[in-house]
From TrEMBL:
Keywords: Hydrolase, Purine metabolism. HAMAP family: Allantoicase (MF_00813). This is Probable allantoicase. It comes from Actinokineospora bangkokensis. It catalyses: allantoate + H2O = (S)-ureidoglycolate + urea. GO terms for molecular function: allantoicase activity. It comes from the Bacteria.
Length: 343
């Protein structure tokens, strides 16, 4: 996968999806928590605090003895890592010349001490860094990881650590008879959309509630007779029982109406319009409102592997949830895929 392709995948480490910087051996000049802030790094010159110039990143002291500095991050969404970005934005004379990134898979909720003693696998070997730059690194491992460790050689400042990849849920922690089939955390993913001018459609299936408009999906204003849409591949084959369409924060720019359709890719091609069937008919929406719709009759009994949300004609949506149950085949598929990435 090229850098351009994998940076479109979700940041598994972001605070927005529940990531946390559990430990760092040093954070003398700037706090470790800044590493996973969702917003791009910023800088205001001549802003001095009691530790010196204020930096929006993680910065350690100048080493006067051999050694390196390290930070450990718990992924908010455990999964398979496709690539890592070590962003040294605004660190010019104080960035690390090199870094190493390691990862591990640990069940439960280990302490920092337990993680430091864990078995780590190097996913980005010791590599040079440039200052004030987004430094991308491909990751070729196909294992599922729960934590990453950034080691900088020997010291310095890093603004952000982005860990892009595909979430893989632990089936032991899911109720396979009642779950959000579209959720990013459960393995759902956006495969196509008509427009993402203002924000990514992956926000639709992200964990939690959108805190601001920018944490949803919003399209450009349409000037034609068409409408905007997004297609989601579900965590596995299932039956949808309830649809949540949340327009929270979208007031003058919420869609007027929405439809939801389903497709079973095992018997039809999602690229073929004839393969789609209605789940939720064209339904009026209200601005700034969480909506829930129960699917009745045949629509609520058909098996689906993909869902398509059409908004009419355009606008923004904070979240979409598709509550239902996995089919027996869907359960087998989910369990098989989890086993394949356990290493």
């Amino acid at each position: 996968m090229s850098e351009r392709a994998w940076v479109a995948l979700v940041d598994l480490a972001s605070r927005r999806v529940g990531g946390s910087v559990l430990w760092a051996n040093d954070e003398t000049f700037a706090e470790r928590e800044n590493l996973i802030t969702p917003a791009p790094p910023g800088f205001r010159p001549q802003t001095f605090g009691h530790k010196g110039q204020v930096y929006d990143g993680w910065e350690t002291r100048r080493r006067r003895e051999p050694g390196d500095d390290t930070a450990i991050v718990r992924l908010g969404l455990p999964g398979v890592i496709a690539g890592v970005v070590v962003d040294t934005a605004f660190f010019t004379g104080n960035y690390p010349p090199e870094c190493t990134v390691s990862a591990c898979a640990v069940s439960g909720y280990p302490s920092p001490e337990e993680l430091r003693a864990a078995e780590w696998e190097v996913v980005v070997p010791r590599s040079p860094l440039a200052g004030d730059t987004r430094n991308p690194f491909d990751v070729t491992s196909t294992r599922r990881y729960t934590h990453v460790k950034l080691t900088i050689h020997p010291d310095g400042g890093v603004a952000r650590l982005r860990v892009h990849g595909s979430p893989v849920a632990d089936p032991a922690l899911l109720d396979l008879s009642a779950l959000d089939l579209a959720a990013l955390a459960n393995g759902g993913r956006v495969v196509s959309c008509s427009n993402m001018f203002y924000s990514t459609p992956a926000n639709l299936i992200a964990p939690g509630h959108a805190q601001v408009m920018g944490e949803g999906w919003e399209t450009a204003r349409r000037r034609d007779a068409g409408n905007d849409w997004v297609v989601v591949e579900l965590a596995a084959a299932g039956v949808v029982r309830f649809v949540d369409l949340d327009t929270t924060h979208f007031k003058g720019n919420a869609p007027g109406w929405a439809t939801v359709s389903g497709c079973d890719a095992r018997s039809g091609d999602p690229e073929d319009p004839a393969a789609w069937f209605p789940l939720l008919p064209r339904t009026r929406l209200q601005p700034d409102t969480p909506h829930r719709f129960a699917l009745d009759g045949a629509a609520g009994a058909r098996e689906v592997t993909h869902a398509r949300l059409d908004i009419h004609p355009d606008g923004g949506m904070a979240r979409m949830r598709l509550h239902g149950a996995l089919t027996p085949a869907g359960r087998e598929d989910l369990l098989r895929r989890f086993a394949e990435v356990q290493g």
